[in-house]
Design a protein that fits this description.
This protein has 327 residues and is mainly beta. The protein is built from four helices and 26 strands. Strands 1-7-6-3 form a four-stranded mixed beta sheet. Strands 9-16-15-12 form a four-stranded mixed beta sheet, with no helix packed on it. The protein has a three-stranded antiparallel beta sheet with strand order 2-5-4. It is found in: Membrane.
């Protein structure tokens, strides 16, 4: 043990000088025992000369990723290596170890680059996305979308986005200073909530592998209502016998509004006008919520044979839209 400890101390100063004498490349996810390189051959070692004293492999770090076959001098994997787990934020993934030859006081540094394979598909954090856009939004408006992520590197990483599902929208992709890609939803055709209250889209992210791998997210666009429709009346006409009782229902006018919510809430009121010098409001009244018209007095055919009046319907938008009907 004392000899071994002394040997490590003597060799410590030589490690940096010998570093990087051997370089190998290995794809990630290779099974345990996969061949990495012929260390003995590449260093010109005669194993028979060192069989009694031994050749040792020292891995950097807590995990032993490689093993050295003493009889063959072959460097092999000691376990399956996941590049994304080891080098998630590093472009070039390199593992280092040393071969120590006892008796010759020689240390040989080894670098093994772990190359990427396309073992990950682009993915979205949320596969169900939602956008809320007013129907009055101007054409060309842009809305940032959630980005996909791919832990692979190089061409195996995220390369492109594609949008499908609806002619009202197109896709724009902005490139960041670090090469990141940022998808944006672009309004290509005017929205009309009364025509379609929802739009279903599919955003697809693809990498550059061969074959390429993809990930998708569904986008549901909810069209927010704008007060762009005025109430529309149905034709109104009524007949009333004379000598009616005060409070009799004359008729109910109806107006519909194609908008939604408060924008479609209709209220009614009488228009301006006079009959035989008296205001219309002294002859009839209208219920604001229902549009029901009631007689406020008993009519005399010899006095008033025909009564023309206007009813206005007004929605709850801001600003409100209105329309009139003649009764």
């Amino acid at each position: 043990r004392q000899q071994r400890a002394l040997l490590w101390c003597v060799l410590a100063s030589a490690w940096e000088a010998a570093w990087g004498q051997l370089r190998y490349s290995l794809p990630e996810e290779m099974p345990k025992g996969s061949f990495v390189g012929d260390v003995a051959k590449d260093l010109g070692l005669q194993l028979q000369q060192h069989s009694e004293r031994g050749i040792y492999l020292l891995d950097k770090g807590r995990t032993q990723y490689f093993a050295l076959h003493g009889q063959t001098g072959h460097l092999v994997t000691a376990e399956r290596i996941d590049r994304e787990q080891l080098c998630r934020l590093v472009e070039k993934c390199v593992l280092r170890c040393e071969v120590i030859v006892e008796g010759k006081i020689q240390v040989y540094g080894i670098e093994v680059e772990i190359t990427d394979i396309n073992d990950n598909a682009p993915s979205f954090k949320d596969i169900e996305l939602e956008e809320r856009i007013s129907e009055m939004t101007v054409l060309g408006s842009r809305f940032p979308l959630a980005e996909a992520h791919d832990p692979d590197s190089g061409k195996n990483s995220l390369q492109s986005y594609e949008l499908s599902g609806d002619e009202h929208f197109s896709l724009a992709v902005q490139s960041g200073p670090g090469g990141d890609r940022h998808p944006e939803l672009v309004l290509a055709k005017a929205l009309d909530r009364e025509e379609a209250a929802f739009h279903e889209l599919v955003l697809r992210a693809s990498d550059g592998g061969d074959p390429a791998r993809t990930g998708t997210a569904r986008i549901r666009v909810t069209v927010l209502d704008a007060n762009d429709n005025a109430p529309v009346f149905s034709p109104a006409d009524a007949r009333l016998s004379e000598n009616n009782a005060a409070g009799a229902l004359v008729l109910t006018v109806r107006a519909t509004d194609a908008d939604w919510g408060q924008n479609a809430r209709v209220r009614y009121r009488l228009g301006e006008g006079r009959v035989r010098g008296a205001p219309l409001s002294s002859y009839v009244s209208v219920q604001a919520e229902t549009g029901a018209l009631y007689a406020l007095r008993s009519f005399d055919y010899e006095e008033v044979r025909e009564l023309e009046l206007w009813v206005r319907a007004e929605d709850g938008g801001a600003p409100a839209l209105s329309s009139n009907v003649s009764v």
